[in-house]
Amino acid sequence: MKLSTKGRYAVMAMADLAQHSVEGPVSLAEISDRQDISVSYLEQLFAKLRRHGIVRSVRGPGGGYVLGRVPAETRVSDIVRAVDEPLKQTRCIAGSPSGCVGDQGRCITHDLWEELGNQIHLFLSSVTLADVIEHRILGRSGAIHRELFAPRVGAA
């Protein structure tokens, strides 16, 4: 599964804001410079984030954006959902009487992709902005991956 640019950029911008808002409001131009995301794109994302209470805008000289709640209470899934990022893995249309393959119902791998979507949502719901900015993301899955895919010593 690959998040679209919208979801990835929203999370990047929010992590940047979380790191720098301790000093006061952060302008979108500052985030743009640090993260290499256009200001106009950030404006679109932050309008949605503001509507969901994830950020607050501060007007006037020295204005910009601040977090709407502390990083430990802001889940990555909330950010992704706020910018309307779909996490759906199947090609079925929700509520449609037809399945992945039209009148034939669900495709043979439907349950696999649906469960992948569920796992992604669970993972993103378990990660907060605090986890991201404090580098507490990599855990057991990294160790398992290295164990499974590391070259074997003495293997022919």
3D structure, described in words:
This protein is mostly helical. It has one domain (5-149): Winged helix-like DNA-binding domain superfamily/Winged helix DNA-binding domain (Arc Repressor Mutant, subunit A, Orthogonal Bundle). 49% of the residues lie in helices and 5% in strands. It contains 7 helices and 2 strands, in the order H-H-H-E-E-H-H-H-H. The chain has helices spanning 5-20, 28-35, 39-51, 76-82, 110-126, 129-133, 140-149; strands spanning 55-58, 64-67. A two-stranded antiparallel ribbon has the order 1-2. A hairpin with a 5-residue loop joins strand 1 and strand 2. The protein is globular and about 60 Å long. The chain starts with a helix and ends in a 7-residue tail after the last helix. The model has no long low-confidence stretch (mean pLDDT 84).
Label this structure with key terms:
156 residues, mainly alpha, Arc Repressor Mutant, subunit A, 49% helix
